[in-house]
Each structure stands twice: as C-alpha cells, then as structure tokens.
Amino acid sequence: MNRFWRNWLTVWAWLVAVFGLVLAGAGLEATDGPTRLIFGLVNGPEDLVLNAQMRFAVALMGAVTLGWAITLMVTFDAAHRLGAQAGPTWRGVLASMAAWFVIDSGLSIATGFGLNAVSNTLLMAGLLLPLLASGVLRKA
After folding, report:
1. What is the DSSP letter of 28?
2. Which in 29, 61, 71, 72 has the greatest CB count within 10 A?
3. pLDDT at res. 44
4. Quick one: which of 68, 79, 92, 76 has its CA closest to 17?
5. From CA 67, how far away is CA 16, in angstroms rounded?
C-alpha cells in the first residue's frame, strides 16, 4: 500500500477515535454538548434524554469506539509491516467492519435513526476505498 493510502487510513482511524471521545463525553453533563449535536444530526424520533442509564450506555459506546479505533491503528501498522503477506489481515479487518456495518446500520434504520446508516456508509466507503484501490485484498 502506498503512502497516500496509508495516510488515508491513519486519518480515517483518528476520525473514528475522535468520534469515540465525543460519545464518551456523554458521560458528564459538562461534556455532553457534542454528543447532543450528533444525536440531533442523525435525526432520531425523539429528543435525546441523557438520564444516568443513557449517559452510561453512550459513554461506554464511546469508550468501545475509541478502543476499536486504536485496535484498527495497530492492525493497520501490523498489516503494513507484513507487506504482501497481509492479505488475511486486511480481509479480517474488512470482515469485522462488514459485521459492524450490517448490524449497526440495520438497527439504526429499525429504530428510527436511518441517517446514522448514511454516516455508516460513508465510514465503510472510507475504509473500502484504500483497500480496493491498493489491491491489498487480493489473494496472494
């Protein structure tokens, strides 16, 4: 994979990490503004009520998202080091993202947050583009 696509994936993973931090911010009233903005943008069926349970759930989701981003960064680095032998690693990353995409987008639509599926599609495209353009998914 060339430097352009490597940098693309680095920026992509950092954006996922920042999103995780924004969601984690829902845990405290003093830091929940960005989370409220995101929920407003995805246009759910009702106003966001951040009671104790919802704060916990959204903040936990943010922590998991941040951890996921860091795991992806490390996996990308390992795959780059493997070079031509990294095909199975890249396909594993794609499989994990596909599982997330199907479940998250399906439930987003089913629960009235269909615009979240649009952002999921953009995120998935942001991963697919460098994987397909660079040829790393081809079997060795």
Report:
1. S
2. 72
3. 66
4. 68
5. 10
Per the CB < 8 A criterion, the answer to whether 17 and 69 are in contact is: yes
Torsion 112-59-56-124 (CA) sign? positive
Note the pLDDT tens digit of each residue in 69-79.
999 999 999 99
Q: Which residue has the tokens 């890249």?
A: 90
| Range 44-80 burial, b when 16+ CB lie within 10 A, else e | beeeeebeeeebeebbeebeebbebbeebbebbeebe
What's the whole-number mean pLDDT along residues 120-140? 93
Q: Where are the alpha helices (DSSP H) in 25-113?
A: 33-41, 52-82, 87-110
Q: Which long-range contacts (CB under 8 A, 24 or more apart) does 91-99 make?
A: 91/137, 93/127, 93/131, 94/127, 94/128, 94/131, 94/137, 97/124, 97/127, 98/124
The pTM score is: 0.90
> 129 with 4: CB under 8 angstroms?
no
Do 27 and 56 form a contact (C-beta atoms < 8 A)?
Answer: yes
In this structure, how many other beta carbons lie within 10 angstroms of the beta carbon of residue 138? 11
